[in-house]
Amino acid sequence: MTPKAIVSYDDTPNDHDALSLGRVLADAGAELTLAYVRHSTEATQEREQLEEHEAEALLERGARTLGDLHVERRVVVSASTAEGLRWLAQADGADIIVFGSDYRTASGHIAPQQSAQTLLEGGPAAIAIAPANFRSEHVSRFGRIGLLAAPGDDAALETARDLAESLGARVTRDEPYVDLLVVGSRPEAREGHLTITAHAQKAIENAACPVLVVPRGVKVRFPVAIEAL
């Protein structure tokens, strides 16, 4: 099974960080979709066609930056970016939604933007967040994958292990410096949805590497690991 990852993209610098993280996930076997959420439709057909053209041009620039002109691109109309991405993830059966950090975040640090934070509280797919200025680090793979999860959280553990196998990395629970942090949901979270503890929220905000938050009871599977079994 190939995991599907939606990259939230609006051509801002921090969304270029999301593209860079999406590229690493693609190298691990994920199938990417670039998604842009428009917040309204225009009153006239002429203006609507212009907005549609600008949205498509924006996603084409993203595809060029990603280095994959054949990547799937989707424009969604929703008053809320979070709700538009939630709908798209459910409609397409996506496993991951990828974000950059909030635009005010210091380089090398993580601060979930509002849409990511909304989806961390009940969202239907894993959430990946890139640190600010991740695009400048030119990361092509991860060597150490950290794990922050409650005992018995097999979904987070197996996601970390699969991703490590796919990238030739190793999983650790106690090293202070890692290349990716996999975070599990609360034990009482609804099956297949995200909810994190205050401790996990703090760990995410203190992270200096990308994070991947996994829904309760649903692992993200990567194809290289499956083929190796």
Structure, described:
It is a single chain. It contains seven helices and nine strands; from the N terminus they run E-H-E-H-E-H-E-H-E-E-H-E-E-H-E-H. The protein has 229 residues and is α/β, with parallel strands linked by helices. The chain has a nine-stranded mixed β-sheet, sandwiched between helices. The longest helix has 22 residues. The C terminus is likely disordered.
The average pLDDT is 92
**Residues in β-strands, percent:** 15-25%
The beta-strand count equals 9
Taken from the alpha-carbon principal axes, the silhouette is globular
Q: Give the structural class.
A: alpha/beta
Topology of this structure?
Blueprint: E1 4-8, H1 13-27, E2 31-38, H2 45-66, E3 72-77, H3 81-92, E4 96-99, H4 114-119, E5 126-129, E6 144-148, H5 154-167, E7 170-172, E8 180-184, H6 198-206, E9 211-214, H7 223-228
Parallel strand pairs: 1-2, 1-4, 2-3, 4-5, 6-7, 6-8, 8-9
Antiparallel strand pairs: 5-9
Question: Which features does this protein show?
Answer:
alpha/beta; globular; single chain; 229 residues; 9 strands; 9-stranded mixed β-sheet; 7 helices; disordered C terminus
Task: Write a short abstract of this structure.
This protein is an alpha/beta fold and 229 residues long.
